[in-house]
């Protein structure tokens, strides 16, 4: 099973409702900079890995990339849908960008413009056009927006797991 492919009405791990409206999904993403800032503030060592795949800080940087890539996909949908969109490997990107070494404070700073840029791209994404994804097939704006909203919702849950330790 592909983790980010909706296969049931709600995500079994985080409870994300795949029937969420476009506006509610966009609202979820608009809240992520403040929510991530609050979550990280409750973690003593946000760069520390404790048996988890990534540290809380690494998840913040992943949120930045999710929103940047999501904005690019939405802009492709709006401007060149025939070009299609590509897959990306989150672990390879984390390694190349060296998430483990990046500042959590800076991650929170750049998360804000990433969320704003994503919101602008989402607001301009046409409802009727589709773009081809090599793994998931045809995607419209609503599917891309929902997938991005699920990722930020899910990874905020991942970050919050660190505060519970």
Characterization of the model:
It is a single chain. With 165 residues, this protein is mostly helical. The protein has a single domain (22-43, 52-163), classed as dinb family like domain (Four Helix Bundle (Hemerythrin (Met), subunit A), Up-down Bundle). The protein is 58% helix and 5% strand. The chain contains five helices and two strands. It has helices spanning 22-41, 56-79, 90-97, 104-124, 141-163; strands at residues 130-133, 137-140. The protein has a two-stranded antiparallel sheet with strand order 1-2. Helix 1 (22-41) runs antiparallel to helix 4 (104-124) and helix 2 (56-79) packs parallel to helix 4 (104-124). The relative contact order is 0.22.
Secondary-structure topology with pairs:
Blueprint: H1 22-41, H2 56-79, H3 90-97, H4 104-124, E1 130-133, E2 137-140, H5 141-163
Antiparallel strand pairs: 1-2
Helix pairs in contact: 1-4, 1-5, 2-4, 2-5
What labels would you give this structure?
165 residues, mainly alpha, Four Helix Bundle (Hemerythrin (Met), subunit A)
For the record, what CATH class applies? Mainly Alpha
What is the helix/strand order?
A: HHHHEEH
The parts where pLDDT drops under 50 for at least 5 residues are none
Largest sheet: 2 strands, antiparallel
Number of strands: 2
What structural category do the secondary elements indicate? mainly alpha
CATH architecture: Up-down Bundle
Radius of gyration over C-alpha positions, nearest whole angstrom: 15 Å
Q: Could you name the CATH homologous superfamily?
A: dinb family like domain
Which percent band covers the strand fraction? under 5%
Number of domains: 1
- Span of the ends, CA to CA: 29 Å
């Amino acid at each position: 099973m592909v983790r980010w492919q909706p296969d049931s009405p709600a995500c079994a791990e985080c409870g994300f409702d795949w029937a969420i409206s476009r506006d509610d999904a966009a609202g979820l993403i608009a809240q992520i900079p403040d929510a991530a800032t609050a979550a990280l503030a409750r973690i003593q060592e946000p760069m520390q890995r404790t048996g988890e795949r990534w540290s809380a800080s690494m998840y913040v940087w992943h949120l930045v990339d999710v929103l940047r890539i999501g904005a690019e996909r939405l802009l492709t949908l709006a401007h060149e849908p025939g070009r299609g969109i590509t897959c990306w490997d989150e672990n390879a990107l984390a390694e190349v960008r060296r998430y483990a070494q990046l500042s959590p404070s800076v991650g929170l700073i750049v998360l804000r413009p990433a969320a704003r840029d994503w919101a602008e791209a989402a607001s301009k994404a046409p409802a009727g056009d589709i773009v081809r994804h090599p793994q998931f097939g045809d995607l419209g704006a609503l599917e891309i927006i929902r997938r991005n909203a699920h990722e930020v919702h899910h990874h905020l849950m991942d970050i919050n797991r660190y505060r519970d330790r």
